[in-house]
Amino acid sequence: MSTQEDETPFDEYRDEVDRPLSRLFLEYGPGRLHWFAIGMVANFVAQMSSLLPPLILGAAIDAIFTGGGEYTLPLIPDVWLPAAEAGQFWFSVGTIAAAFILVGVFTWIYGVSANLFAHDVMHTVRVDCFRKMQNLDMTFFDDKQTGEVMAVLNNDTQNLEMFLDNALVNSLRLLVMVGGITAILFLLNWQLAFVTLVAIPAMFAFTYWFMVTVEPRYVRQRAAVGWLNTRLENSLSGMGLTKTTSSEDYEVGRVRKASKRLFDDTMAVLKLSYVYRPGMELLAGIAFAATFLVGGWWIMMDTAPGPMTGDLQVGEFVTFLFLTQFIVAPLAEVSNIVDQYENAKASSERVFGLMDIPAYVTDPADPEPLEDVRGHVEYDGVSFSYSATEARAVGEDLEGDEEVVVEDVSFEAEPGDTVALVGPTGAGKSTVLKLLLRLYDVDEGAIRVDGHDVRDVCVSDVRGAVGYVSQETFLFDGTIADNIRYGQFDAPMADVREAARAAQAHEFITDLEERYETRVGERGVKLSGGQRQRVALARTVLQDPEILILDEATSAVDTKTELMIQQSIDRLTEGRTTLAIAHRLSTIREADRILVLEGGRVVERGDHDTLLEADGRYATLWAAQAGNLDHALETLADGGE
Ligand code: ADP
Asked: Per-residue pLDDT averaged across 264-288, rounded?
């Protein structure tokens, strides 16, 4: 049907989650089970108390209002009850009032404790999931599963909360009400109880039919919700493209289609409940009418109808009718309880499915210290394949079918050296550099920093020593100062300003009304591309890494800004080991070493002059770009930007 139903690594782990709800209780119960227990007990007391008034009413009718009968209550010895009529009256009034107070107080207690339990579990699960997700490998996020993760963090935790809050309490209510009322009816008059309860098996059967029929429709409805969410998310993030291509109507059409599907699937569920709810009421009505018929006949004729024997009091009869009414509501909840249970099971499967995804890029058990980094970098026969890494994540072995993206790459950079990677798009340049940051781990060979294999030191130590200046600058919603400080959260303001100056950002920042406190808006949309890049550069200056990765900006900024950025970058690279991806070869003329990559392999290496002399691929690239460069210089000389 939709792409969201394609298999992803996510599903693999989801399918392997055993008994997810037991696991939820085992992992998240301890420490807060007392809230759960208090809630359940309070709920029990509240339900039991609510059965008292009809019983008292029945007894009062027989003994006081119609006169002559005995004042008796089930399970209570008669000697405990008042003998005089006045005493019985006040006892009835007092007990009914007390019962309602008990119902009120205990309903409050169970509401508060069940809420505390459920919301506390939800909060903890949500944070745990998020923390777990933060540590997942980059491969996981390459599959663009953000919509899915959002659904787990929002909808699934909410389903768990609903289940813990409502379903458990409602199932207890169901047990107490159906069990308690059945017992009371039998104690009062077992013969009439048979008449009243004859509808109960039919109600259960009807409920069972409803659940079985509705389940596949629920599944379709849930899928339609997911489909609509994906659609909405996709449409919103592509807003710019939609506007520039005037495709608003097309997008509305797509969303309308997804929304209509949800509408249809929801109606399919509702149609069944239109049969179920009135059906339950009808069955309850039949039970009520049958009780009324048999009981009423019994009293009116003053003789037991049919095979029945003995007496029926008016009060008993009234109690019967009241309690019959009480039994329907909890029974009608059965389908909701089952639905919430199914939802919670599926949700906890998704939650634990996410939590069980193993991360491969992790700290070693016994990390070597990486201190006082000098910045020596060595690639030693490095090979890497995305497909093999992804397959490994789901426990598969591609057995030679992997698409190798980086193949046997070796080079060395002395502290302070600049090594440049050039080559056509898709040659593997970015991938080579991402391996140093351990965004992925190499399949073969090793990458060493100051002689340490990057897999033998803590991930955070490697990433702390390496600064990454990429083509895509990302700014978090927050102030400019927050964004420069990102990663070095304790940096004093003076250092932030210093870094901004070094990145040539200070000037434009101080021109803004709120200066460093200016909010950049989500994704930094309130700043121009060049400004965003300079803020990102300032962030790297503040990080002060020994090794620098430059994924050269190709994004269109005006020439003046580009020159400024180039100047800041030049200053940033001074004294640091720099690995740069260059598109404009003019920027890497001075590099100590240039590697030409093609299809993941190094096909040429040397400095600018040697490579020109060799007259190979680099020389061709250079010749092609030189024309452009001359043109650019001419434009600059004319004062254009
Ligand atoms: P370059 O930086 O030279 O343009 P890249 O390193 O970005 O090249 O990409 C090299 C190859 O790896 C390309 O074929 C690209 O499609 C593929 N690739 C890049 N990133 C991923 C990814 N996250 N998952 C799978 N394949 C990828």
From this structure: 89
Residue spans of the domains in the chain: they are 10-355, 377-606, 608-641
The model's pTM is 0.77
DSSP 76-96: B-GGGS--SHHHHHHHHHHHH
Calculate how far, in angstroms, residue 582's C-alpha sits from the geometric centre of ligand 1.
16
Cβ of 264 less than 6 Å from ligand 1: no
Q: How confident is the model at residue 3 (pLDDT cuts 50, 70, 90)?
A: very low
Closest ligand 1 atom to residue 428 Cα is 6
- Specify the higher pLDDT residue, 255 or 395: 255
Backbone phi and psi for residue 390, each to the nearest 5 degrees, phi listed first: -65, -40
Q: Which class is 377-606 in CATH?
A: alpha beta
Specify the residue with its C-alpha closest to ligand 1, atom 21. Answer: 386
- State the DSSP code for 415: T
- Whether 321 and 350 have beta carbons less than 8 Å apart is answered as no
Any ligand 1 atom below 6 A from CB of 430: yes
Q: How far is CA 172 from the centre of its chain?
A: 29
Q: How far is it, in rounded angstroms, from Cα 571 to Cα 587? A: 13
pLDDT at 631: 46
Averaged pLDDT for residues 541-556: 77
Contact in structure between 538 and 502 (CB atoms under 8 Å): yes
Residue that has been written with the tokens 């010895």 in this structure? 77
The DSSP bridge pattern shows strands 377-384 and 444-449 to be antiparallel
Identical fold for domains 10-355 and 377-606, yes or no, is no
How far, CA to CA in Å, does 412 sit from each of 231, 451, 596, 603?
47, 11, 15, 16
Angle between helices 85-134 and 168-197 (to 10 degrees): 140
Higher pLDDT, 120 or 15: 120
Query: How many Å lie between the centroid of ligand 1 and the Cα of residue 63?
Result: 88
Q: Among 69-78, 239-248, 471-480, whose mean pLDDT is lowest?
A: 69-78
CA angle 286–292–297, rounded 5-degree value: 130
Please, what is the angle between helix 33-60 and helix 168-197, to 10°? Answer: 30
| Ligand 1 pocket check for 315: Cβ under 6 Å | no
CATH fit for domain 10-355, picks 2.30.30.60, 1.10.10.60, 1.20.1560.10, 3.40.720.10: 1.20.1560.10
Strands (DSSP E) contained in 357-463 are 377-384, 406-413, 418-422, 444-449, 452-453
Buried b (16+ CB within 10 A) or exposed e, 358-383: ebebeeeeeeeebeebebbbbbbebb
Give dist(CA 576, CA 413) in Å, integer: 10
Helix (H) or strand (E) holding 606: strand 601-606
**Over pLDDT 90: what percentage of the chain?**
10
Mean pLDDT of the chain: 82
- As given in the structure block, the two tokens for residue 201 are 């098996």
The distance of Cα 494 from the centroid of its chain, to the nearest Å, equals 38
Beta bridge partners of 548: 467, 578
For residue range 24-57, what is the model confidence (pLDDT) as tens digits? 888 888 888 899 899 989 999 998 899 888 888 8
- Sequence-distant (6+) residues with CB within 8 A of 2 are 223, 227, 230
Q: Is 142 in the pocket of ligand 1 (CB under 6 A)?
A: yes
Question: What is the rounded CA–CA span in Å between residue 411 and residue 381?
Answer: 9
CB 328 within 8 A of CB 281: yes
- Six-digit token pair at 193? 């109880």
